[in-house]
Design a protein that fits this description.
The chain is an alpha+beta fold. Helix content is 42%, strand content 17%. This is Zinc finger PMZ-type domain-containing protein.
């Protein structure tokens, strides 16, 4: 099984140590690296927890160390609210209006663009080039 370029097998395991003794910061050893997990801040030094906003392997090991076998129920407490059904439904509760692929230009817009073209420095440079020919 492969996640984020790290191949995990059944033999891979983590050792978790509570470094702050206040159940905030943990050090996770395993899979050839050492990471620091801060559960209240929802961050991990490997940055996966920070980017995805869902507890990843190091955070899951920390949750298991902290909550025992009930750690699976705690995942939702440490995940971003964006992944909750209520937030999803709220985000898409209103209709989304499509923007037309091609917007028809009004006469006023064409005139404004033409005026901008003739008053821009690029036009003056082109005008000088024509005189020099």
């Amino acid at each position: 099984m492969e996640f984020w370029g790290v191949t995990m097998s059944e033999g891979n395991s983590f050792y978790v140590e509570n470094i702050s003794r206040d159940e905030r910061q943990y050090t996770v050893f395993g899979s050839g690296c050492t990471t620091k997990v801060d559960l209240p801040k929802r961050s991990c030094s490997c940055r996966k927890f920070d980017l995805v906003k869902i507890p990843w392997d190091h955070a899951m090991a920390t949750l298991r160390s902290k909550h025992g076998e009930d750690y699976g129920l705690r995942v939702y407490d440490y995940s971003s609210p964006l992944y909750k059904v209520e937030e999803y439904l709220l985000a898409y509760s209103e209709s989304i209006n499509l923007v037309p692929f091609r917007v028809r230009m009004t006469r006023a817009t064409r005139i404004a663009r033409r005026e901008h073209y003739f008053t821009s420095r690029g036009h003056q440079a082109r005008k000088k080039e024509k005189k020099m020919r």
